[in-house]
Each structure stands twice: as structure tokens, then as C-alpha cells.
Design brief:
mainly beta, 5 helices
Length: 436
């Protein structure tokens, strides 16, 4: 990890990694940490009508209160070093007609600290809510990005009063853009003609001083979480039924993600396919500075799964795709995690040569690959013998099985109160690679 992280991240990660070292595979907890604050049936939720409007630039410290319901109108920017503080239980409705969005500009902060019993909710203002009803949330920081230059601008078609309001990136890996804790983001991801889909939560050049934990993004038309550069620490994130990727890391992102969940549905995913984790270092190679770090993800205790009433049939008709897609130049270490119900488990870009150097930068250890149609493949190749031999080595302690959802997880069918933790006492695991 030393070659990928600054000293501050190493100091932060060591106690966290020691804490997680004794945990079981997948998301964990003595209690089900999804209880109370998450909502897997958000289409049934009723929210109050707006009593206040948020629009334009917020250039002074501002407090939002639970007793009010706020309408986010158009592109809203927190600017000039201001802090937007949001009381637990506050509801903010993103306007459908104006395709509202909220941007925390570089140097400003958001302090959105909900609680387990009183989460903060960003959702659509439509009575019948759908994916892409409104934009999403952008947080722009001053942490490193691997693009050429020192400052960059978001390319989502936002309409700021000054281009400075959409700039991000810089030298401060410890950058603090505030806190998001116990927050739900629903029905975001509007589509634009020239820039594609917004994401539920975009972190651009965000540093390790920013707290991002217990965040649920559901029914997003873009990616639920998009990490663009920066040095981020992400804990207990939930992505539910995203149309695109659940977690996207790009442009030199240096990220630690722990105890996090992604639930995909064959019927809510883009017909073009989408991964749970999409790992890249660039979109266009000519955009990046080769002297800067490529994207690196260190992840522990993830649960990525496909919920389907007939998984085999959905795979056969092409509705299920890989859990993780890895592009050239990106590296990772994924540990103590579950990939369940994918086709295949992992797909490596065909530009990645299968050799010792590259494999040493792509680590899967103590994994549980369950019910996947094939485990780890190179794109366009049906022969994954080298990958099977490598990751099937007993030193990695990876496990391969064909358990049903009811055998594998405590309760995934009851979306009113689901429990996606591993059902330890019901699993009969095999260390033999599945070569389907």
C-alpha cells in the first residue's frame, strides 16, 4: 500500500485494516447496520411538500432544518468557502423540471450529518418517482488527480456563474470537504444530451479529511458513486438498483472502501450492461500525466450481488454482467468480499497482459465467489486457465461455491427489512474453481 498512498492515508488505514482483519466475508456487524436508516422500497415513501427553495449560489454559511422541506431548483452551488449544514431528518427534493443538482465547490463544505433514526434524504419531487428525475450531488475538492495540468473542470453541462465553481483537484490529499453521514440519495442521475448521465454522488478530487459513510444511493440512472481522483475513505456505502455502475473509480483515484453493499437487478440495469465496480485510470490515455499515480482501490468486506427470481434465465438472455470490470492502468486489492450471481465475477480489459507484474497489482484474497457463471476472465477470451491457476492458489484462500441466495445470505427477499450479511452456518463452500 505504501507506493499507492500518502503517509496520512497509511496512518488512517492501518488501524482500520487491523479492526477488519478478524471479520467474516462480505458486509458484517453484530447487528444489521442497514436497519432503520436505509429504504429499499423508496417508491412507496411519501414526502412533505416543499416549504423552502434552494437555488443559485449559496455564498454564506447556511443551515437547513428538519422542520422545513426544501426544493432544490436548478444547479445550486455552495461557494466562497461557505458551509452548508443539514440537520438530521431533513428532506431535500430535487426538482424534476429544472433537473436540479447540488455542487459543493472547492474550498466550501457540506455538513450533512444524519443519524440512524433520522437520516437526511435527497429525492425526487415527482409524485411518481423514476430513475434520473433530478441531477445529483457533486463534491469538489483539492486532492490529486492524474490528469495533465493542475486544475480541471467538471464536464456535466452544469451552469455555474463562473467556471471556477466547477473546478477541482490539487495537491492536498488530506482535503476536507465536510461530512456526509446517514444520507439517502434517491432517483438521481439525469441524462444530458452531450455529457451522458449524472451520478448519485460524485466525489471529484476529494481528500481523506472528508467523511463519507452510511450513504445509500438508490434507483440512480447513472453510477451510484463516482470517485474521480482524490484520496477517499468510504465506509458502509449502499448502492441499490443503479442503472449504470454501482461504484466507479477513475482518473487516479486512491480509495479505501469498507463494509459496503451493492445490489443489482437484471431488470433495472442498462441494456448495454453495467458493473458493480468499474475501475479505470482514464477515459482517454492522452488526458493523463504518466508521472502521476494510476487508480488504486483497496477494499474489504464488500458484498456485491445480483437479485433475481431466475438467475440462470437472466444470464442466458444477457441481462446479467460482471461484478467488477478492470481497465488497463488500474490496480486493486480486494479482500474478504462476496461476489454473488454475476456473469462472470470479474472481467479484465483485453489490454491487460496476464503476467506476474500485472497480477501482483490485482489482488483477490479471502474472497467468496458464489453462483457466478465463471469467475475471473480476460475480455474477449474464453480461456481463463492462467487466471484460475493464479487466483485458485491456496495462498489466496479464495472460495468458490454455487449456493442459492437463501443459503448464502440471511434474508435478501424481504426488502422491507433485508439482511445481506453472510449466513455462515448454511454455507457448504468448495475451493475448486468453477470452469463454466
Amino acid at each position: 500500500m505504501k507506493k499507492h498512498y500518502s503517509l496520512i492515508l497509511i496512518l488512517l488505514f492501518v488501524p482500520l485494516c487491523s479492526l477488519f482483519a478478524q471479520q467474516e466475508k462480505g458486509i458484517y456487524g453484530n447487528e444489521n447496520w442497514l436497519n432503520i436508516w436505509t429504504e429499499f422500497n423508496s417508491n412507496k415513501e411519501e414526502y412533505p411538500v416543499p416549504t423552502q427553495i434552494l437555488s443559485g449560489n449559496i455564498s454564506a454559511d447556511t443551515q437547513l432544518y428538519k422542520k422545513e422541506t426544501y426544493l432544490l431548483l436548478g444547479d445550486v452551488f455552495v461557494t466562497g468557502g461557505a458551509t452548508l449544514s443539514i440537520e438530521p431528518g431533513t428532506v431535500i427534493l430535487g426538482d424534476f423540471k429544472s433537473k436540479a443538482s447540488l455542487t459543493i465547490t472547492e474550498g466550501s463544505k457540506i455538513m450533512a450529518e444524519g443519524t440512524q433514526t433520522d437520516p437526511i434524504v435527497f429525492t425526487s419531487n415527482k409524485s411518481i418517482r423514476k430513475k434520473g428525475d433530478w441531477g445529483g450531488i457533486f463534491i469538489l475538492g483539492n486532492a490529486p488527480v492524474n490528469k495533465i495540468g493542475s486544475k480541471w473542470e467538471l464536464e456535466y453541462g452544469l451552469k455555474p456563474s463562473s467556471s471556477r465553481l466547477v473546478q477541482y483537484g490539487g495537491p492536498d490529499a488530506e482535503n476536507n470537504s465536510g461530512t456526509l453521514k446517514y444520507v439517502r440519495i434517491e432517483y438521481a442521475g439525469k441524462r444530458t444530451k452531450d455529457y451522458g448521465y449524472y451520478n448519485g454522488l460524485t466525489l471529484a478530487g476529494v481528500g481523506a479529511g472528508t467523511v463519507v459513510e452510511n450513504i445509500m444511493v438508490s434507483y440512480c440512472a447513472g453510477s451510484s458513486f463516482y470517485v474521480l481522483g482524490g484520496n477517499t475513505i468510504l465506509h458502509q456505502l449502499v448502492s441499490f438498483r443503479a442503472k449504470k455502475n454501482d461504484f466507479t473509480f477513475n482518473y487516479g483515484a486512491q480509495a479505501l472502501m469498507t463494509n459496503s453493499l451493492a445490489v443489482k437487478s437484471p431488470y433495472f440495469t442498462s441494456s448495454a450492461g453495467a458493473s458493480s465496480i468499474y475501475l479505470a485510470s482514464y477515459n482517454k490515455k492522452e488526458e493523463i500525466d504518466p508521472s502521476k499515480k494510476g487508480t488504486y482501490l483497496y477494499a474489504e468486506n464488500l458484498t456485491l450481488l445480483v437479485l433475481s427470481d431466475d438467475l440462470a434465465a437472466d444470464i442466458d438472455v444477457g441481462l446479467v454482467h460482471e461484478a467488477m470490470y478492470v481497465k488497463e492502468g488500474a490496480s486493486f486489492s480486494i479482500n474478504k468480499s462476496i461476489f454473488s450471481g454475476f456473469n462472470p465475477g470479474v472481467l479484465l480489459e483485453d489490454k491487460i497482459w496476464i503476467n506476474n507484474e500485472n497480477l501482483s497489482n490485482m489482488v483477490f484474497a479471502n474472497m467468496y465467489f458464489n453462483n457466478c457463471k465463471g469467475n475471473i476472465f480476460t475480455e474477449g477470451s474464453s480461456n481463463n486457465e492462467d487466471l484460475e491457476n493464479w487466483y485458485g492458489n491456496r495462498a489466496f484462500q479464495n472460495v468458490y461455491s454455487k449456493g442459492s441466495d437463501s443459503e448464502t445470505f440471511i434474508d435478501v427477499k424481504n426488502l422491507s427489512n433485508p439482511d445481506f450479511r453472510l449466513r455462515i452456518n448454511k454455507i457448504i463452500a468448495s475451493n475448486i474453481l468453477d470452469k463454466d
